[in-house]
Amino acid sequence: MAAASTPRVITCKAAVAWGAGEPLVLEDVDVSPPQPFEIRIKVVSTSLCRSDLSAWESHAIFPRIFGHEASGVVESVGLGVTEFQEGDHVLTVFIGECMSCKPCKSGKSNICQALGLERKGLMHSDQKTRFSIKGKPVYHYCGVSSFSEYTVVHSGCAVKVSPHVPLDKICLLSCGVAAGLGAAWNVADVTKGSTVVIFGLGTVGLSVAQGAKLRGASRIIGVDNNPQKCENAQSFGVTEVVDPNSYREPIAQVIKRITDGGADFCFECVGDTDMITTALQSCCDGSGLTVTLGVPKVKPEMSAHYGLFLTGRTLKGSLFGGWKPKTDLPSLVEKYMNKEIEIDDYITHNLAFDDINKAFNLMKEGKCLRCVIHMP
Q: What family is this protein classified in (predicted)?
């Protein structure tokens, strides 16, 4: 009986990226059984995040399976896993929570020492891959790789949710929506009556807007040059939109002028290090705070005049909105189920797995917020 229940290799369809910017190809991929402290998940829904697109366009690790915003059902568990069992509904997360390292226990950081960002396309535990095609390795992305019918993640990189929660909606809490809300609440601690400026009105930026609105910000100014995104911004809490292309003067000067000296809070949600400097310049003297959330695909170094800091401005980074995934995500799911936060309106397209390249094209062209891909 024991041998019959031992997990075996599964062969399934996965969208494999063979090179930078090349269309993904649906391939038959072998998915290994979960190793100790890992779980294998049948992916139900997964959405395309801007960081997937950026990595696909620029990273050198191929072949690779992208995707990290996902929900699914546990198919099997590895040795030592006690938190999950077959049939559990889960959210995947791109940074884990081991619950025992110094940052996890300190309460000061959500960057787990054991299960932080995966950068080499390999599993945390043994630096190997669980995917292969004809015996040759296919690499992971963000420790999740959800553009596959089945995937393997460390048990610390999954969060159990109620079977009554709609998996096709809450997959957005795996990254984008949670990251924006957390940046406004946990990292910036936006205050009532404050002025907020958001650079970039994608899913993350509009999630910041939702968080700022719920905190009672009086002005929420969105900065974006995409007319389609600007049109929809007000429904998420943005009170006014600024298109940089409509002004001859630098956008930081525009913000300083229309806010009478600068914003209380600025959020960089583009992934452009030059925009971080612009956001800093748009903050008010003395107490202005800039939070950067974007992931740049080029020019990772930034520069800023020391005077911006000498006059009291602060720059903070935000990864996953400061949330500890296992500790904090269940409360966000509960807020969604209680209609205290909005998720559904960020979903602009629902696509079949066969149409995954359409999702990439829509995001490249700036014609979507989140495309949710429904697995077979």
A: Belongs to the zinc-containing alcohol dehydrogenase family. Class-III subfamily.
